[in-house]
Amino acid sequence: MSKDSNFLFDDMGPRAKRRVRIGSAIATLLIIWSLWVIYNRLESNGQFEGRRWALFTHHGTWLFLLGGLGNTMLAAVLTACISFPLSILMALARLSKNPILSKPAVAFVEFFRSMPLVILILFIAVTAPASGIFKMSGLWVLVTGMTMYYISVFSEVVRAGIISLPSGQREAAKALGMDYKQTMRLVELPQALYAMTPAIMSQLLFLVQDTSIGYIIPYEELLRRGRDIESYLPISILQTYLVVTLVYAIVSLSMLALTNRIERNRNISTPRAPKGTPKVAASA
Amino acid sequence: MDLIYIIREYWPMFARGAEMTLFLTVTSALLAFLIGSIVAVMRIGPIPPLRAAASVYIEIMRAIPLLALIILFLVALPKIGIFYSTTISAILTLGIYTGAYVAEALRAGFRTVPKGQIEAARALGMTFRGMFLNVLLPQSIRSVIPPMGNLLISNIKATALAGAVGVQEIYWAAARVNFDSARSIAVFTLAAICYLCIALPTGFLWRKLEARMKIVR
Asked: Domain boundaries in chain A?
């Protein structure tokens, strides 16, 4: 039994155990029955016929899909690498006491956070060629739109991290004679980012999943490649999208596993001091 | 100016779109809350198969992009002949997807109730049901209000994805009008304004609610 239920119940007596066994039996039957209904519905539709799955026996199909996955990851990595550093600046601007910095930052964050990402990306896709100044490939349309959105998302996370630090940290740094830049770089940001690692990881998961909007622009990412296959072989439409969804699930689940691992190890390890930290002799 | 022209010529489409967006948001949010509550109780309850089913459901929903799910339900299934009305499919899809996140938020909310309170309830001889309904639920409901607000806002934004596959809401209206009028900047600005007019007041009202219902410990 997992951790969080232990304190919800007492250890069960014989009667409760019997009830749980009966409940388990009924629940198992219900689950099997509903899976059976779904299976039957698809079977009677002929979805398990070999000819509908045949395309997945060719390695070319897999290469095509994996290429799509590569494009997905390319867009995700570019977005993360561009938006994350900018989001730190955005968070600092929003926390700044100077209204010339903080007001526009608030407006930027609130605007891009309340806007559906699809609208933003389609807006860029439609207006970028119309403005005629620059031509953008699907990749950069996707990355630009997602960067705008994720700057505001990550900056909120970073801001929450900085706010949640005990004020003693800032005061101690000040008392040591550090200026604003040193305090941020050496004291506040490292701790805020460390505290926010789980939140950042779960946003990264959303970031990878959001690249699927490339389907609309179109950008040749995984979901779009699924559509390419499906338009070539319409009888395998369900199979194609199921496989594509499965690939997304595998990628996401491995990211989730990584997140859980990081979270498990957090209690053991402490953050390493960033470079440039003055060395203090350990007191005996 | 283009924007005024678009508003004058096409406002009924945008109004219908906004109506559909609101309708989808509210119905799918209610459905998600219903699903989420049931799944959260399954997840913390004592019956092992139900716990397993709930956690598999939550993990799967967290692991796949919403657009992939929408395409599976609103494009792939209709093409093989399993078809419901587009609106109903959209509500079901959004509800099922968001339901998993609601379940996670509720479960996290149950954890915020200090363990001592549950032990105290048990020491007083409360049954599981009495403890759940009178101690755990009232407190955790209040602590999950902020994450629920975030889910509501993302649900508003998620309806736009349903628009991409033909549900006639704001995004769909914008894509249509854009095709029709070729004034893309004005059209998408108007669509953005429509979404902001829905999302920003919702966020504002929710923060009011949050402030009212906050647990002061």
From this structure: 54-265
